[in-house]
Amino acid sequence: MTIQISGVRKSFKRRGHAPQDVLRGVDLTIRTGEFVSFIGHSGCGKSTLLNIVGGLVKADGGSVAVDGQVVSGPGPDRAMVFQNYSLLPWLSLLKNVRVAVQESRPDWKKARVDEMVERYLTAVSLWEHRNKRPGQVSGGMAQRAAVARAFAVAPRTLLLDEPFGALDALTRSRLQQQLVDLWDSESETETVLMVTHGLDEAILLADRIVVMANLPYPSVRTVIDVPIPRPRHRTTVVHHPAYDAIQKQLVDLLIADNDAERVGAGAG
Ligand SMILES: Nc1ncnc2c1ncn2[C@@H]1O[C@H](COP(=O)(O)OP(=O)(O)OP(=O)(O)O)[C@@H](O)[C@H]1O
User: Fold this and answer.
1) Ligand 1 neighbour 176 (Cβ under 6 A)
2) What's the distance, CA 35 to chain centroid?
3) Is the ipTM of this complex over 0.85?
4) Which CATH class is domain 3-77+155-267?
5) Which ligand 1 atom sits nearest the alpha carbon of residue 195?
6) How far is CA 223 from CA 31, 206, 234, 239, 258, in A?
């Protein structure tokens, strides 16, 4: 499904201050089947943009259209995964996934719900832990349950907001692989948008990396193609001839943005 982001603007009111512009005219087209990462300094509006695409936050201006339909709220075609799992702590992993599927897909028969819940809890190796509550499992397992929950509603687009940011490096790398495997599998999920702070994670996973700019002009700074063929593996991807150049470009852009923000803050 094509996601067309056109002139999206957003500002937030701040008590005792002028409203803060968080996004000033974002234009971006995301094609069906793409994996797009969003990177930029803290506070540059990455989560806000993802939430606008997810229909959780309303833009002040501009629009997001999915396959030509303007987004006016959340929908089962777009599932989100957040850094803090956002599982319901009083429900088992199984019930967390099942409740989400039942709410998102009220038209599905029980057999279809059960099949999707089992398929994705099994795919993330949690079926035998399905009766445990989130507080009884590790952070990595809880995040796997959140990933299973997102895939189980069969969204065509997955929106990931720093999903692995709170995990240790080893767990993070396993989950990155599981995510790509699920995306590559026969899942209905075609397109992935992922906010990340990890340059390596962005290069490993993305077809394109959207670098967001900070104040004084928060928007899309540039979009970088990652022409590294799939399947990619973290141990080999770093040896690809394009890897170092992309990493350097990202570092340079982020440093330049830091400097621009300092100048902007000084001028203001
Ligand atoms: N609901 C809100 N009310 C007021 N301000 C908000 C709200 N949501 C976000 N902001 C502000 O908007 C700016 C952008 O926030 P956002 O979370 O989109 O940034 P981000 O790039 O995702 O940051 P991070 O990388 O730290 O998660 C921040 O200054 C934040 O404080």
Assistant:
1) no
2) 9
3) yes
4) alpha beta
5) 22
6) 14, 11, 22, 22, 18
